[in-house]
Amino acid sequence: MTNVITPHVQMLDLLPKTFRNSLPSAAIDQLANFTAERETWLLPPLVDLCARLREPGQQQHGTLASEGRAARANGFLHVVIPPDTSPILENGSLLKGLRERALEDGGIYLHILGALSAGLKGERPSNIAGLKKGGCIAVSNARRPFSNDLVLLRTLEYAATFAMKVFFYPDEPSLSNDGVAHEGYIASYHGLQGIPWIAETVALSTQLLMVEETGIAAHFSQLSCKSSVELMRWAKSKKLPVTCDVAMHQLYLTDDNLEGFNAMAYVLPPLRSNTDQKALRRGLTDGTIDAICSHHEPLNATAKKAPFEESTPGISNFDTFMALACQLVRDEVLTLEQLVDKICLNPAKIAGIDTQYQDIGGAIVVDPNLEWQVTAETMHSSGKNTPFFTQRLQGRVVETFFG
After folding, report:
1. CA–CA separation, 380 and 319 (whole Å)
2. Can the peptide bond before residue 269 be classed as cis, meaning omega within 30 degrees of 0?
3. What residues does 194 pair with on adjacent strands?
4. Is residue 111 a contact partner of residue 353, using CB atoms and an 8 Å limit?
5. Cβ(131)–Cβ(159) below 8 Å
6. Which residue from 305, 139, 106 is spatially nearest to 217, judged by alpha carbons?
7. I need a surface site. Which of 27, 205, 228, 378 has the fewest CB within 10 A?
8. Residue among 151, 52, 69 nearest 104 (CA)
9. What is the 3-state secondary structure (H, E, C) of 107-125?
10. CB burial readout 215-247, b (16+ within 10 A) else e
């Protein structure tokens, strides 16, 4: 990653007027100094549609304080978390305190997905009314299955009565079957249990048909394969109320990165083939894919030291996110304007927080040509579990202007 990006727009052009007005005069002066020193981008704060901050319940891997600070340092001011914490996020009355601690300890605005089913067991609906009253932006069953499709249908009908958006993480467990890698040559060569692409698309097909039947607004997170992109094109051609995102690492890594049992590249959904990666990039370029999430999952040092199939899936992504985003512009997958849509403006709309997002304002300064090495010292997150460890990347957030 050695090519230099020359910004083709003025620094303030990508910042909505509301955000420009939110900046204090001292910040404008500081920005002028940055401009004089180097070519930089001034962008709105990043919005992440899926990150696991490990609290509550898994503080051995990270906390609201540690991962909030890591998010903030890397330009994320707004972060959406799924409900599969411990305890599960299904009690609306407890969520206010979680949001307050995220802001006080980590300096970020936390947006919570409540549990779609009670206990995420997929047997009956959760208290969706209570979750909405508690400030959940949407509901989700994360990657947990429903007992059958009828229960899912009735639960979606129930959620629709409260006008609650549903976030899906499509996976058919009878097909993924405790697999740990994309079903293909690499998995077969290493003797790893494979996860076929159809495990994602069978679930996605069912969920899209239920969206069509119920009319509920839905977001599909972390698509990983070519057929999923094609299904989303079909859904959008039918004007279904759907959006989708892809995790940043899926745009740069494939199952080739698993060679040698590289547990750092073990993530669910799995890294898939080069063909799938190209399709994801095309879907991003043509607008089929609306947003890019981090899918940040920090882990402690021991979580990746077991044999591959016994290690814990997940990649720590906050710290490498902006470098890879800059590379998308460098590779001409996206223009800078499109990148802002995918990582700032569209995610805010999808999360239903665009008014709050504009009101809070803020800005980040990115040096797209800053070269740095991924090390324990240069990573802000408690989790150092990244397949990019020791690599040299280009592009980083060099200043934030958050209230």
Report:
1. 7
2. yes
3. 181
4. yes
5. no
6. 139
7. 378
8. 69
9. CCEEEEEEECEHHHCCCCE
10. ebbbbbbbbbbbbbbebbeebbeeebebbbbbb
154-173 residue pLDDT tens: 999 999 999 999 999 999 99
Strand pairing report for 194-195 and 291-293: unpaired
* Residues 6 or more apart in contact with residue 261 via CB below 8 angstroms: 190, 307, 308
Among residues 110, 162, 111, 120, the alpha carbon closest in space to that of 141 is found at 120
Q: Given the structure tokens 């403006």, which residue do they identify?
A: 345
| Rounded-to-integer distance, Cα 50 and Cα 243, Å | 14
Q: Which helix (H) or strand (E) holds 76?
A: strand 76-81
Query: Could you tell me the CA-to-CA distances from 91 to 127, 128, 137, 180 in Å, in that order?
Result: 8, 9, 14, 32
User: How far apart, in whole angstroms, are the C-alpha atoms of residue 373 and residue 379?
Assistant: 9
Burial class from Cβ neighbours inside 10 Å (0-12, 13-18, 19+) for residue 146 reads buried
Token pair for 305:
């030291």
pLDDT tier for residue 366 given thresholds of 50, 70 and 90: very high
Question: Quick one: pLDDT at residue 9?
Answer: 38
CB 71 within 8 A of CB 318: yes
Calculate ∠ Cα 212-217-222, nearest 5°: 100
Q: What is the token pair recorded at 285?
A: 């370029």
Report how far residue 200's alpha carbon sits from residue 141's, in angstroms, rounded to the nearest whole number.
15
Which DSSP state fits 51? Answer: B
Please provide the average confidence, as pLDDT, over all residues in the chain: 93
Other C-beta atoms closer than 10 Å to the C-beta of 11 total 19
Please tell me whether residue 259 adopts helix, strand or coil conformation. coil
Sign of CA dihedral 142, 147, 148, 151: negative
- Among residues 140, 124, 130, 210, the alpha carbon closest in space to that of 162 is found at 130
Tracing tokens 């279904």 back to the chain, one arrives at 240
Contact between residue 344 and residue 46 where contact means Cβ atoms under 8 Å apart: yes
Burial of 401 (0-12, 13-18, 19+ CB in 10 A): buried
Yes or no: say if 296 and 52 are a contact pair by the CB < 8 Å rule.
yes
CA distance 386 to 258: 12
Q: Are 252 and 327 in contact (CB under 8 A)?
A: yes
CA distance 41 to 180: 39
